[in-house]
Specification:
The complex is a heterodimer of chains A (332) and B (472). Chain A is mainly β. In chain A, 15% of the residues lie in helices and 40% in strands. In chain A, the strands form five sheets. Chain A has a six-stranded mixed β-sheet with strand order 15-14-13-16-17-18. Chain A has a five-stranded mixed β-sheet with strand order 1-8-7-4-5, with no helix packed on it. In chain B, the strands form two sheets. Chain B has a five-stranded mixed beta barrel. In chain B, strands 1-2 form a two-stranded antiparallel sheet. In chain B, a hairpin with a 2-residue loop joins strand 6 and strand 7. In chain B, helix 10 packs across helix 12. Classes of the chains: A mainly beta (332), B alpha+beta (472). Chains A and B meet through strand 4, strand 5, strand 6 and strand 15 of A and helix 11, helix 13, helix 15, helix 22 and strand 6 of B.
Chain lengths: 332, 472
């Protein structure tokens, strides 16, 4: 078969190069090629239809995507011995047509003798003052991820205590919250717990914590005895992944603690508490009660480039004290 | 000191991975990645002979278990090179024991490289220099097992057992003996030995070793283990797997399951135990879960691939999930989608023989005949899939295209949704029309209907059809 590119012999009537293609639309060409056997039309590399005789036209539904499309017409002629093809590329919706809303949620603990309002606080992001949209006394529905260390060192009842505590204290979650469990040793497993979980293997703490990254409002509660022998993810990368606008990391440490977890909690506005197998449930209970009673400050970020954005929240008025709040986030 | 757990047992590891076959979130590591990482560190940081040779042999064995044969052979060759240097230096230093050890490892490396004659020769030479050493006999047994002489292997392993007094080494040699006996089909004695080894290792006698393991959170499994803790974990793992396989082979599912579950208590992502538990699952849900974890642990086990029959589309980004999606596409005959997925996996694992094998399988299925063009009879599913592959690969001749254009076919079709009809299935092969079609008459979805059509081409893994007529 002779395959040649004779774009000059094929002219697209619809759509035109640079035009927009959305929804049902005709694709049509005209050609000066003689003895045409068929014209095959492909959209983004996938055969969309075939026309055997003029007018060489098919109907095609481009759907609702605003992306550009590459449309190719391949003309077979001379008893399928010769092919010629031509392409057009339609235009995507331009950046100026879109609006980027960068809403930042800052969970915070505030001591005040009355309900806190936007007028009580001043927020800056990389020293650029921001306008507070609202301060909610209610944390809102959220995803709760319990990140539980199941490594060999979590024996002696620590793992059992952690799983029992999660089971017992999940009653403090709201009906519209979503609960997930991430178990980790040297590997990380998401999903419901099936059967008995035995402490075994090494520890991939950073891998596990960074695996919970999400654009959803997420409270990650990490229960571990610390240490990290097997993570593939570096501390910087892990911190960057979880330091977004909507993730808060709280930690219950059953052992020596971890510099990485201290930073993760500090960056995201969470807390780190120490516990033992016997006090774990009490600490988890306190933590969930505290989460349920946090304020959420919301503002629309402006005036800063991508990268790390440091958030500072200061009281404007007397009698208001910000105890703890997210320290910043990574903007892509 | 390096302990050759598996002269045979390495092969055993590979064999288990293949025959029995041996876990959600972001890109997850394959279980053996941890062993690879540790051994890479060992060969980079420790220059002594035993670190080098055990590191290279372990790396080769891990690569073999992942069906990365060329990488495995490269490691075995490096191990052999290390033994050549050590043998020379030992001769120069007039150290017979050192020479015998190096020669034993040379035999092992040669055996792993498939050079049976050289392996035999080297093994015999090592024994001539150091026949009073249990370790030498054990290495001899390992090499003999690899070169397909299980009787010699068993006999040598018995000598090793008879000579050894150290409790851990004795357990290792008993394990090696049991492995040889299994090859000789002497399962009763092998089972007694393995049960004894497992019982001893789990007894208070090894409590301090277990504490050390717990303190270090050690879990890596090696065929040539260095250090007591490493040898302990590896030996317990392998012994329980072998014992489980013996129980399984004789139909004692519960006893087998118990052994495999014990393995997972120490190593939650052991691919052999996970695959075995999938086979022995008590429910479809449990089977799927174990299969998912087994594929995450070792996505490239051919035995696992052969026994996996699900066409369900798993979620997830792990290599195991990608592999299961690929297999599901192959099971459904979606060769184009399978090829695309295979291409993505091959980019990540360019030296993998399993992926090459799957590509050969797909190519073979795609290159089937399309005789219906000549006979003008209703095409079979296989012919339709071959035709889709030829469209996608642009392998149809001008004559075939012209013949296809002139051909009107009739097949039994079911449509996915109520009219207007747009997509459906003919004999398990997906098809679509260029646009939704309404036919005269009353026709239901999911009901077999006689469709007369012309084939326009392929759109991914679906045929693009031009409908001519639809009848009940």
């Amino acid at each position: 078969m002779h395959s040649t590119l004779l774009a000059a012999a094929i002219t697209f009537l619809a759509p035109q190069s640079g035009g927009q293609a959305i929804g049902p639309q005709a694709i049509e060409i005209t050609t000066t090629i003689a003895a045409v056997d068929r014209v095959e039309f492909s959209v983004d590399g996938v055969l969309a239809g075939v026309a055997r005789k003029p007018p060489y036209r098919i109907a095609h539904d481009f759907g609702t995507s605003l992306a550009a499309h590459e449309i190719e017409a391949k003309v077979y002629s001379n008893g399928y011995r010769t092919t010629a093809s031509a392409k057009v590329v339609t235009a995507a919706l331009t950046a100026s047509d879109t609006m980027n809303v960068d809403l930042v949620e800052v969970p915070m603990r505030v001591r005040a003798s009355r309900r806190v309002t936007p007028a009580d606080l001043r927020v800056t992001e990389n020293k650029v003052e921001q306008t507070i949209r609202e301060i909610r006394a209610d944390r809102g529905a959220a995803r709760f991820v319990f990140v539980v260390d199941r490594s060999l060192s979590m024996g002696d009842g620590k793992l059992d205590a952690a799983l029992r505590a999660i089971d017992a204290e999940s009653k403090l979650l709201r009906p519209d919250d979503r609960k997930e469990i991430v178990l980790f040793n040297h590997s990380v497993t998401k999903g419901p717990i099936v059967g008995t979980v035995t402490p075994s293997g090494g520890t991939s703490l950073r891998d596990a914590v960074s695996s919970i990254a999400s654009r959803e409002r997420t409270y990650a509660i990490v229960i571990t005895d610390g240490g990290d022998r097997n993570s593939m993810t570096s501390e910087d990368v892990a911190l960057k992944r979880i330091s977004n606008t909507k993730t808060i990391v709280d930690v219950i440490v059953l052992g020596d603690g971890s510099r990485f977890l201290d930073k993760a909690a500090r960056n995201t506005g969470g807390t780190v508490v120490e516990a033992s197998a016997s006090t774990l449930q009490r600490e988890l209970h306190r933590m969930l009660v505290d989460i349920n009673s946090r304020y959420t400050l919301v503002y629309q970020s402006h005036g800063n480039a991508g990268g790390w954005r440091t958030i500072t929240i200061d009281p404007r008025k007397r009698g208001v004290e910000v105890v703890n709040a997210r320290k910043g986030y990574w903007a892509e | 000191m390096s302990r050759q757990l598996a002269a045979r047992s390495l092969q055993l590891a590979a064999a288990l991975l293949l025959a029995a076959s041996c876990p959600l979130l972001a890109q997850q590591r394959i279980a053996s990645d941890f062993e690879l990482q540790q051994m890479q560190r060992q060969v980079e940081r420790s220059r002594d002979f035993l670190s080098q040779v055990s590191g290279r042999l372990n790396l080769g064995d891990v690569r073999m278990a992942r069906n990365e044969t060329s990488l495995a052979r490269a490691e075995y060759r490096k191990a052999l090179d290390a033994t050549a240097k050590e043998r020379l230096e030992a001769r120069t230093a007039s150290s017979l024991t050192r020479y015998a050890t190096a020669t034993s490892y040379a035999a092992l490396a040669a055996a792993k490289l498939g050079d049976d004659a050289r392996a035999f020769e080297l093994s015999e030479e090592a024994l001539r220099y150091d026949s009073g050493s249990a370790k030498t006999w054990n290495l001899y047994a390992s090499a003999m097992s690899l070169v397909g002489k299980p009787a010699k292997a068993a006999s040598a392993a018995r000598n090793a057992v008879a000579l050894e007094t150290d409790r851990l080494d004795l357990a290792i040699y008993r394990y090696a003996l049991a492995s040889s006996l299994i090859e000789l089909k002497q399962n009763a004695e092998a089972e007694r030995l393995l049960a004894g080894v497992v019982g001893t290792l789990r007894s208070s006698e090894f409590a301090s070793l277990r504490s050390g393991v717990a303190r270090r959170e050690a879990f890596e499994i090696y065929s040539t283990a260095r250090g007591d803790e490493s040898a302990y974990i590896s030996l317990l793992n392998r012994s329980q797997l072998r014992l489980g396989a013996l129980y399984e082979a004789r139909g004692e599912a519960e006893a087998a399951r118990q052994q495999y579950e014990h393995v997972l208590e120490a190593r939650s992502d052991d691919p052999t135990a996970l695959a075995a538990l999938a086979r022995l699952a008590r429910s479809g849900e449990e089977r799927e879960r174990y299969y998912a974890e087994a594929f995450d642990a070792n996505p490239f086990s051919l035995a696992l691939i052969r026994e996996y029959r699900s066409s369900a589309l798993p979620e997830g980004t792990s290599t195991g999930a990608q592999m299961r999606r690929l297999l599901a596409a192959m099971n459904r005959g979606e060769l184009q989608s399978a090829r695309t997925q295979l291409d993505a996996l091959t980019k990540q694992f360019p030296d993998n023989d399993t992926l090459r094998e799957l590509r050969r399988d797909i190519d073979k299925r795609a290159s089937g005949g399309i005789d219906f063009l000549r006979t003008k009879t209703s095409p079979t599913a296989s012919e339709l899939r071959s035709l889709i592959a030829r469209f996608n690969d642009d392998r149809l001749t001008a004559e075939e295209r012209a013949a296809l254009d002139a051909l009107t076919l009739t097949s039994v079709a079911t449509f996915d949704a109520a009219m207007p009809f747009e997509t459906g299935v003919i004999d398990g092969v997906r098809f679509k029309f260029s646009e939704p079609m309404i036919f005269n008459g009353t026709f239901a979805a999911h009901t077999p209907l006689r469709l007369t059509y012309r084939i326009l081409g392929a759109s991914g893994d679906a045929l693009l059809l031009e409908p001519v007529r639809l009848e009940p």
